[in-house]
Amino acid sequence: MSKLNRYYNIIESPIITEQTLNLIDDFNRYTFKVAIDANKIEIKNAVEAIFNVNVVKVNTSLVKPKFKRMGQHEGFTAAYKKAIVELEEGQTIEAFNV
Prior knowledge:
By secondary structure, this protein is an alpha+beta fold. 31% of the residues lie in helices and 36% in strands. It is globular, with a radius of gyration of 15 Å.
């Protein structure tokens, strides 16, 4: 498996909400859903390789499952790991421009 394929397995998807768009505008921080077993160094290398940017800092957090109910159906949402990546000043990721 090539390095780029491994990087795409680490970065699962971007998280685009109103709050994350405010983080982009105010602090140049981008939010991603990442693999549970990925560490900060792997996340940094993956973002730099995929988007061709320089990463200054990576913060991670585990998002716990939440209980949801929909009529007769009830259960928990899936747990996942979230990474907030700060880029060097002046750099952007074009995929987040909405």
